[in-house]
Amino acid sequence: MRARNKLTALQIRHLESGKYNDGGGLWLQKRPDGGGQWFLRITVHGRRREMGLGGLQDVSLAEAREEADRWRSVVRANKDPIKERARIRREAEREDHTLASITDQAFRARKADLKGDGKAGRWLSPLNMHVLPKLGRVPIEMIDQQDIRNTLIPIWHDKVHTARKAMNRLDIVIRYAAAMGLDVDIQAVEKAKALLGRQRHVTRNIPAVHWRNVPTFYTSLSEPSVGNLALRLLILTAARTSEIRFCHESEIQDDVWVIPADRMKAGKEHRIPLPCQALELLDAAGTWQRNGFFFWNRRSVISDAAMSSIMKRREMEERPHGFRSSFRTWCAEATDTPREVAEIALAHSVGGKVEQAYRRTDYLDQRRDLMQSWADHVTGGA
């Protein structure tokens, strides 16, 4: 029988870099910086393998010997200890009931309901930013209203919408855990809200340029920069900034811009009839076009701030998203456009589920005339 326990703790502290045998297949590889790694040499099914047992800083000599004994017994049972350890870890992960683990499972269960399968990360971001750093490693069965209150109180009044989203997501995760059969308090979120109290928040609409002043602002965007062209298209189409940024040549079908469902906030395909001014603008944007995207800037599409920064530099309070309000107010005050047509032009849902099931039109022809009239107003043509 091979000799064992050749090393001592005192020897190990003074060993030079190199490999040292403690006996029975247990080895220590010492590094020049004083650190090291324990590993066990074993023969399994005729193959010699090396199994890491941890770093010298974390695993003592006595612990390394204990681990070596444990895995030698697995070898004697004619099993591969490396595969056996992986199996044990997988089983442990399946029993991982921390908030972080359950959040991941709940998110994967909801992916089909989220825009783009949740790849943008917006569903998880309130939890990743404000909850999981503090509670992620806590078993979900141990989380109560006090934990939630203490975690969210720093943002409860200052980041109202984010706090609400975090609460909503956390409630979904806890209810998912309850469905798994875990012993959680499904009322914990509601109790935490009671402890936090009413939020101090006054809703403030995004400032918008008055529709009468839109032509003047549009004319001021005369320099054919990529940001100006993108902002002009946003004004002409009443689209959202994200829809404009990722506008792709494959989405333009004759005079209609077809935005796929995975790029829309509501998760439904949206068609925008393009007025002649918008089609001319897309031709002009060809200078900036790369990889099929109309608004490309160096290595990617323009940033989310590219259009708003134009308005900020002019010290304007208004923001690009406000032009959707400018358009909608123009529809109400300067035209006799039916409400449902104006709302669908903004990709808003109109009516309940039953009404939507029976109304199988997006009023494309009516909206074609509407968008041309808006473009004529914006460009001074009417």
UniProtKB/TrEMBL annotation:
PROSITE patterns of this UniProt entry?
TYR_RECOMBINASE
Query: Domain of life of the organism in this record?
Result: Bacteria
Could you list this entry's UniProt keywords, alphabetically sorted.
DNA integration, DNA recombination, DNA-binding
| GO MF assignments | DNA binding
Q: Which InterPro entries match?
A: DNA_brk_join_enz, Integrase-like_cat_sf, Integrase_catalytic, Integrase_DNA-bd_sf, Integrase_DNA_bind_dom, Integrase_recombinase_N, Phage_int_M, Phage_Integrase
- An annotated GO BP: DNA integration
Q: Which residues form the Tyr recombinase domain?
A: 204-371
For this protein, the record's Pfam families field holds: Arm-DNA-bind_3, Phage_int_M, Phage_integrase
Q: Which family does it belong to?
A: Belongs to the 'phage' integrase family.
Which named protein is this?
Phage integrase family protein
